[in-house]
Amino acid sequence: MGKKRSWVWEYAKRKGDKAYCQLCDEDKNNEYSCVGGTTGSIIRHLKIMHKVYQPETSTSKRLSSSNNLEEIDTLQDTDSLTNSQSSSSSSNNSFTQPSQHNIIPRKRRRFLTHDNDTDRKCSPERTETIHKALAKLISMNQLPLSFCSSPGFYQFMAVVEPNYKIIKEEALKKRLHFFKSSIEEKIRSDLKAVQSVVCTSDCWSSLAQNSYISITAHALNNDWSPMSFTLTTQEMEERHTALNIADKLENVFSNWEIKDKVTTVITDNAKNVVNAVQLVSNTTNDNISDVTCAAHSLQLSINKALREDSISEILDQSSKLVGHFKHSNLAKQSLLSKQKQLGMPETSLLQSCKTRWNSIFLMLERIFKDRCPISAVMADRSVTSTHIAQKFEISEHQWLKIEALVILLKPFQVITSLLCGEKHSPTSMVRPLLKKLLDNHLKPQDNDDQSITYFKQTINFDIKERFNLEWNLKSRVSVRQIASFLDPRYKNLDHEPLFARENIRSSVINLLNNIETDAHNVNTRCEPSLQQSALEFLYGDDVTEVNNLTTEFQNYLAEPQLKFHLNPFDWWKSRENKFPRIGILAKKYLSIPATSVSSERCFSTAGNVVNSKRTSLLTKNVNLLVFLYQNRNLIP
Questions:
Q1: What helix, strand, coil percent values describe the chain, rounded to 5?
Q2: Are 568 and 590 in contact (CB under 8 A)?
Q3: C-beta atoms surrounding 83 within 10 Å
Q4: According to DSSP H, which parts of 142-196 are helical?
Q5: Higher pLDDT residue, 60 or 343?
Q6: Beta bridge partners of 426
Q7: I need a surface site. Which of 10, 130, 419, 572 has the fewest CB within 10 A?
Q8: Band of residue 415 on the pLDDT scale cut at 50, 70, 90
Q9: Beta partners for 156?
Q10: In 137-176, which positions are buried (b, 16+ CB within 10 angstroms) versus exposed (e)?
Q11: Is the dihedral of CA 145, 151, 153, 154 positive or negative?
């Protein structure tokens, strides 16, 4: 008696020694069983692709329990293969019964074929998930919009998801604009919840000579956590006059509904931008427009001190030496070989750049560290000719000056890194750090030569003048001084002259008198205990309000000063209820960043977006891609 015919043959057909699904298109590779195999693969295909299941009979239940989706048993027999081939023309309804003799031992095998992957359909839900993931990838990796139409991407998706339909560029833009709208809604909500906003701004030009203006926003939320957003990177077709820049700033503030909340705009020292900020400040109640980028001002002082003749000569000679190793592959490889022989890190020399902060220090520091391998390469006549060696030779006296300059410039590199850190660096840090810089690192020494003495005197005078570190009868209290007093790390004002400290405290009291707070903010926000209520009942009319402004101010002065390396925002978060009025003022002034480096970072992002191969990118797409990348942590 032969085997009972399987139910799968109602949906499959047999041609020769292979089985095919009748529900699939004939142009597809719908082969699911071969000679010597079982019907398990086609059963799985019917279940997954066509939702066809075995009829509920006792026999079918028994058969389905033996068919495993991951592993199936295979019975192969040479005689059955021969019999199957010979009887294929006479019977198309069932497989040939295998011979009772010479049966090959049963073995286990994994049933995994490429056909299953190619026949798997990509559902609309999964397609949309892939679309959004691609839009997020392009936003976070600064990829071009044409990335999804590249041949490499087609090949990649053919492996990952063969049946995925590649997204079109216009559909991709819709997803990107959806991300942009979601981020804008989140930023508007966060800015609406704060009382004051500080912005930074700067102008730049792309490789295509299109002018742009970037604007960022900074604030402290209710949990005293710093927030930073890039608002826009707009094309500026008008001339960069103070009036045009001021109009652009006011339009952006109005669009984001923060015009009444912006307290100041941090910019570089360009006259047109500074005047534009003053025009914007005149339209607000607070006139605190005297805050410029501290790092930019510091670099101007450094550049002025480096103009001394002997120092300029050393810098020119060092730059030419680095240029020689940059242009000569033989010299570069020889330098790496000498570094390896001396057990030093294999590093290349660094070239200075006038527009890059601290690049002169980094160049001199690398040259001085690699003095031995550089000297060895220059002395090797198989690598460096006599003419070249004499042309780029650095004398012993110059080496000593390079060493002195590295020591002098190191503190400036450290303070610039602190002020331009990724985390929020408030403007309250500027004056205390500059005071430490001048007192601890720029004091004249007896062994200083003429050029080093000139450098110290020049930069001392210029820093004091730019940052108004000297106090006289005509001086007025600056925003940085108020911010330093409100910073618990510098509240004692040790960095300020004695006769300036009282003026700073008086200015803060005047600002506090103008702050209006409701009873919920003025009180300690704590429900009175039963003991307090009983005491108030006994004392009656003798109870007076102890939480007045004078008491609050004196209590703040009595607080111990926080260590310089601790977080001032954590300090204020735990004491905001204790000093409610001062806390409001502190949140306003401590949200002011020390530099405009957040706008400078937009330049780097835009440089990757508008590169030499994408100079024709539309300005609206530049704004879109820069906005998404700068606010990538808010992408849903």
A1: 55, 10, 35
A2: yes
A3: 16
A4: 151-160, 169-192
A5: 343
A6: 593
A7: 10
A8: very high
A9: none
A10: ebbeebbbbeebeeeeeeeebeeeeeeeeebeeeebeebb
A11: positive
